[in-house]
Amino acid sequence: MDKQRVILASASPRRRQLLSYITPSFEVIPSGIEEEISGPPGNAVKKLAADKALDIAKSNPDALVIGADTVVVLGKTVLGKPADGADAARMLRLLSGRTHKVYTGVAVAFRGRVHTLCRMTRVRFDVMSEREITQYVGTGEPLDKAGAYGIQGFGGKFIRRIRGDYFNVMGLPVNALYKMLKRIKADIRL
Predict the structure, then answer these.
(1) How does the average pLDDT of the chain come out, rounded?
(2) 34, 46, 107, 109: which could form a disulfide with 65 (CB 3.0–4.6 Å)?
(3) How does pLDDT run across 112-156, given as a tens digit for each residue?
(4) Of the listed 51, 55, 69, 165, which one is catalytic?
(5) How far is the C-alpha of 176 from the C-alpha of 18, rounded, in Å?
(6) Domain CATH for 58
(7) Does residue 108 fall inside a structural domain?
(8) What is the pTM of this model?
C-alpha cells in the first residue's frame, strides 16, 4: 500500500526542515493566501493556516496538506514579517529586553476535513544595543521572519530564555503536529 502524499503549503525553508523531522517524503507547494492577522492571535494563526492548507488542497484533494502561520505578539502589538530593514530594526527595538509571545497555527487538510492547532511560546530577549540591532539587520536574517528574528540563527544569541516549544518559535511545533497526524491516522512515511 502506498503511503499518503504529503504537501507543505509553505515556502519557508525552516518549516521544510522541521517537517523533515516527521517525514522525509513531502512536496512543497506554497499557498498564495494573503497573510492578514485580525482577531485574537491564536485564532488568527489557526485561520490563516487553515486557509493556506485549503488553498492547496482544492487542487490536490488526494493529498494531506499542511499549512502554518506564525506571529510574534508583544503586549497587544502583533509583529509579522518586517517590510524592510528599517521595519526590522523597529521591531527589534520593541523586543529588546522584553518578553513576547510567539503563536504558530497549524492546519492539516485531510480526507475532506481540516484539523487545526495553535501553540504559544514565551521568548525573553536580552537588551540589544543599536549597534547590535544594526549589525543583525545587516545580516539579512530578520527580513523574512515574524518578529524580525531567527531563534535558530544569528538571532539566537539575543535570546535569554524561552518557555514552551523551541520549534514553535521556528515556525512549526513538531511534536504537536506529529501527535495530530497520529490522532487523525495519517499513513505517512516516517
Answers:
(1) 94
(2) 109
(3) 999 999 999 999 999 999 999 999 999 999 998 989 999 999 999
(4) 69
(5) 12
(6) 3.90.950.10
(7) yes
(8) 0.92
